């Protein structure tokens, strides 16, 4: 089968790259989009059909592809041009033509769209060209995007009933999709696979004595990640005389509101902000944490928490989205209410005061849990089964 794994740009996120490589062992994998960075694949079954960033190169590619389409399937040109006409300006029409044309020309047997919101642009592949489509359901695009952008809710209500299959990263995500018309029988809950490297560097937990308790978080400065509540918790800890250092590894520049909040709360000396790190370097930094916190307002299932659990680091998460499916109180970690800095501060102190034996029990449980439920081989097989069901 020819499986298109589509995220819009190459290379994609780590878990999507793992999916690409895993699926290529059984099927041809087609990649469409803009290439942001050079990327080569060892598998001969992965085919890249990029839209070049340079305009003159893109023009040449597009002209060549138009000729090929006219020679191979001229009947596909009219519906493609009809789709392009719904965009208002000539420039928009040109941009979307360069993106859509490779997909129509190299028509896959299954088109797996990684980001739900892209249905706004690509649902026509199903309605106009009858290409079987699978849609991944991940945190933000299903939980809060339809609320902050109501027209997206209408897009979902129109398109979800038409899709051939859905991949949900958690049970809570599956439930959310059903509110927009996704059929339960078409939804497969498949956990995003963790990199095998994270299990290779696992270390059984050992309680360390530091001058300050080391709190860590990994993510980005965005309101849904709840960092304002983490900073409030830090202020509570400082006020109560709890000695700590807080390291936040972020993937985007710090915003003015966060800088102002840290200064106003008087926690600038306790908080260290690090820029995004390559995976192995990130794991090394994380292994120096005494606890990893996730103060998010919403998540599918946060990969960074799974990685921390795999590494043997105690975790505290808010009870948002699919997080209660993996962070089980007194078993695999600590769970606190959303928007509750007091509860978060209390949980941090509880971790700090827990015995080494108790922390070893919980971190070992957590490691075993993610190793059993988030292994790459099992999840890849689930995707293969889904593609074969949809593509047959």
TrEMBL record:
It comes from the Bacteria. This is Glycosyltransferase family 4 protein. It is an enzyme of class 2 (transferase). Pfam families: Glyco_trans_1_4, Glyco_trans_4_4. GO terms for molecular function: glycosyltransferase activity. InterPro entries: Glyco_trans_4-like_N (IPR028098), Glycosyltransferase_grp1 (IPR050194). Residues 15-191 form the Glycosyltransferase subfamily 4-like N-terminal domain. Its EC number is 2.4.-.-.
């Amino acid at each position: 089968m020819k499986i298109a794994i589509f995220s819009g740009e190459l290379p994609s996120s780590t878990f999507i790259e793992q999916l690409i490589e895993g699926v290529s062992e059984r099927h041809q994998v087609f990649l469409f989009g803009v290439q942001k960075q050079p990327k080569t694949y060892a598998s001969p079954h992965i085919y890249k059909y990029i839209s070049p960033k340079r305009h003159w190169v893109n023009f040449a590619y597009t002209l060549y592809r138009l000729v090929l389409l006219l020679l191979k399937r001229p009947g596909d040109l009219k519906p493609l041009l009809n789709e392009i006409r719904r965009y208002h300006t000539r420039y928009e029409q040109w941009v979307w033509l360069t993106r859509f044309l490779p997909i129509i020309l190299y028509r896959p047997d299954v088109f797996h769209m990684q980001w739900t919101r892209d249905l706004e642009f690509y649902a026509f592949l199903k309605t106009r060209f009858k290409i079987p489509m699978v849609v991944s359901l991940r945190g933000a695009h299903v939980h809060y995007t339809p609320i902050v952008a109501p027209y997206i809710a209408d897009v979902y209500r129109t398109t979800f009933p038409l899709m051939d299959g859905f991949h949900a990263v958690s049970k809570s995500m599956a439930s959310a999709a059903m509110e927009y018309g996704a059929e339960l029988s078409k939804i497969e809950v498949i956990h995003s696979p963790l990199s095998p490297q994270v299990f290779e560097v696992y270390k059984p937990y050992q309680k360390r004595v530091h001058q300050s308790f080391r709190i860590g978080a990994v993510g980005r400065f965005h309101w849904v990640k709840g960092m304002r509540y983490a900073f409030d918790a830090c202020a509570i800890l400082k006020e109560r005389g709890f000695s700590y250092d807080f390291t936040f590894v972020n993937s985007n520049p710090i915003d003015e509101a966060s800088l102002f909040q840290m200064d106003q709360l008087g926690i600038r000396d306790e908080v260290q902000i690090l820029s995004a790190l390559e995976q192995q370097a990130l794991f090394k930094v994380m292994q120096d944490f005494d606890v990893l916190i996730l103060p998010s307002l919403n998540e599918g299932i946060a990969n960074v928490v799974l990685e921390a659990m795999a590494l043997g680091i105690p975790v505290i998460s808010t009870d948002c989205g699919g997080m209660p499916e993996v962070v089980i109180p007194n078993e695999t970690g600590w769970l606190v209410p959303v928007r509750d800095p007091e509860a978060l501060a209390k949980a941090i102190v509880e971790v700090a005061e827990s015995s080494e034996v108790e922390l070893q029990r919980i971190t070992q449980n957590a490691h075993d849990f993610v190793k059993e439920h988030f292994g790459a081989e099992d999840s890849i097989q689930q995707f293969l089964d889904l593609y074969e069901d949809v593509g047959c």
